[in-house]
Predict the structure.
Amino acid sequence: MNEKIIESMEGNYYIKQRGIPKGCQQCLKGAKAVLFLNGICQNPPHCSWYCPLSEKRKNKPISYIDEIKISTEQDIFTEISKINAQGMSITGGESLLPTNLKKTLKYIKLVKKQIGRRFHIHLYTNGINFNMNIANQLSHAGLDEIRFHPPKNKWNNIKYALNKGMSVGAEVPLIPDKYYIKNLKQFILYLNDIGADFINLNEFEICEPNSKSLKERGYKLKEGTISAVKYSKKEAIPLIEDCILKTTLKMHYCSIKAKDYYQLKNRYLRRASNIKKPYEEVNKEGLLIYGQIEGNQADITKFKNYLINKSGMPKKLISFKQTSIQLPYYVLLDEVFLEFLKSFNLNGFIIESLPFNEIDEKQHRQITERTPIEVFKEEIDYIDKN
């Protein structure tokens, strides 16, 4: 069969006839909640030098579900509900360390019991301490997919996960180094020989936690990007082409653009549609957009009384604070309303913010754009004309 490598809209490559793992399908749709178990890890030499974990999380015993710090188990289900998640991934740190295994198994069982067996869960592990006992426990708990990133002397540990009712594969970075790629080809062939299902090849990433280490080793940013390592993407297609006739594996190259833009944007879209207030709209990036009127307390109070008693605007479309009023952004674009607003000595802005609940997640409700109405109108007119 003439199998074809295709490029997706996200800049990913995969073999069309083989597809990509189910966990990846859900991630790209923003339908996967990410459970960061904690930052505790063996810090093995094969991967610790490029670990992207921030100081806030690295080696810290703190758990998160997406961006939200977990205080209670209910936080997990709240986040799953907010993004209408179809699945969950478990990452770290190392989720299968002896000190973490019990917690990992508890969360898998808890989520499967409350949401249902069809809720897809995949897990990342370096596989260093993986064994038959752990494989059986994960299978019994209901794990659907496991992704290994092992050092070469632990490749054989992957075999323990086979024939346990879960999809077995690997996920590793595509590091543009001849020796690394030579070993990566061997790894791909090994996975195929033992009967694994897939390998995900991630675009190599440079970020604040690993930038010094990567620069010392001679790795450079790809032009026009802020985090992609030069030549990582360039090596993807030749590697897949070299292995395509020798394997039956799903082989999926995942770009930084897919991870940092599409996955996040789609998750934001899902969240925003669930948490938005009546006066908020959701833009194409998954951000919340609304109008905000600002001024001193006395003037805001006068305008508030006008809106409530004389404007005829439904009360559910208006929110009041001491020195600001929130309402649908399109109201502020009306010329008559805008002139009336000026007579009250008030200023209007169009606000875009991250889609987080303002009460429960104050640390995440960040304003990304705060544009004066006149500037916003000019931008809209320019876009319409062009």
Observations:
- The mean pLDDT is 93.
